[in-house]
Write a structure and sequence with these properties.
alpha+beta; 8-stranded mixed β-barrel; 4 helices; globular
Length: 171
Amino acid sequence: MGKLGKYVAAGSLATAIMMLAGLSQVSARELVAVDGGFGAGTIVVKTSERKLYYVLGSGQAIRYTVAVGRPGKEWSGSTHVARKEVNPVWQPPEEVRRDKPGLPYQIPPGPSNPLGPRAMVLAHGQYAIHGTNKRESIGTRASYGCIRMYNEDVVDLFEKVGVGTPVVVLR
């Protein structure tokens, strides 16, 4: 039966693919039922759950596990995607530079860049939904207020949304 066969025998093909890719069912995106009156195309982040929901409509959403703001860095409110960037350059904000004075003023795209392969900058430019160079942080309270996603998930979401997409962050 081979390597894939033992996983398929134990569960679904999706589970087998996730296991071979090194993902657990907890960390992988999944289609879920959702309520709350949000329109199709809305991004809803529930920081208490450390989950991001991309609302599809008809009571369904794609749910992603994310990292959110650490204690004291949480925020909530409504905004929208103002800009989308492929292979973004990271310029650490002053607050981060104060806490980590050894950081360079700019980090180019690549494995050392904390934004990962995609960034959706939110209105006013203070926060973004982006990938990460620290996979282990996903599912935790780790950021300065940005929403971190697994790199494969941020690429998936990036392709689904456009500039102007509404974003609602709830605690």
